Amino acid sequence: MGKRPHKTSQGDSGTAVAVAEKEHRMTEGSAGGTRPSPESGGAPQRAGKRSFFDVYKSGQGYHTRVGTGFVSGALVCWGAYALYEKLYMLDHRWLQVFIPVGVIIAIGLFGYWILALNRKVCDFLIATEGEMKKVNWTSRAEIIGSTKVVIFMVVSMSSMLFIVDLFFMTIFGWAGVLKGTTVVDVLRESF
User: Fold this and answer.
1) Hey, which of 11, 116, 143, 158 has its CA 20 to 30 A from 97?
2) What is the pLDDT of residues 148-170, one digit of tens each?
């Protein structure tokens, strides 16, 4: 099938010009010019140039990023405190303080780079949060019911094993295998 010639009317020429301008802007954006950024709501952003404070896909994966950052920060602070305690032997107190603070700042900046700028890690955390939203969590009533069943089974099995243990102790006591163990002696020791 061949192409049909396109008829151009006055209304179509305005549309054709708009389409051509849009294609030109897209080509210019891919060649290193300015292009609209979806993260910034369509505001022009320099292609390929990002500042340190431009969070990659900032609206996505917020809870997993914040949770990961909080837990990592707590571990780093704990490690810095342990380092502070190990540096008690230094003559200068300011070194004992500034080395752990420097470690916190360095690892904090690295953590920010990982959680806010690294595309692979950010995409993984975004996908993780998306999968967690798909999980079918059990309701409170189901959890309470399951807990009651588990507690009942543990208590009943332990009671049954206690009774069976007393039975075998009595039989072995009568047979002379166990000396001086009767049910009364066992109950006195247990309670």
Assistant:
1) 116
2) 999 999 999 999 999 998 888 88
pTM of the model: 0.47
Neighbours of 131 (CB within 10 A): 9
The two structure tokens encoding residue 43: 């505001």
Say yes or no: 117 and 144 in one domain: no
Non-local CB neighbours of 56 within 8 Å, separated by 6+ positions = 39, 50, 116, 117, 118, 119, 122
Distances (CA, A) of 79 to 83, 109, 145: 6, 16, 41
Residue 9 lies in a domain: no
Asked if 100 and 83 count as a contact pair (C-beta separation under 8 A), the reply is: yes
Closest CA to 110 of 77, 152, 80, 72: 72
- Report the number of distinct structural domains present in the chain: 3
8 CB contacts (<8 Å, ≥6 apart)?
16
Q: Structural domain of residue 68, as residue ranges?
A: 62-134
Give the least confident one: 6-10, 90-94, 129-133, 150-154: 6-10
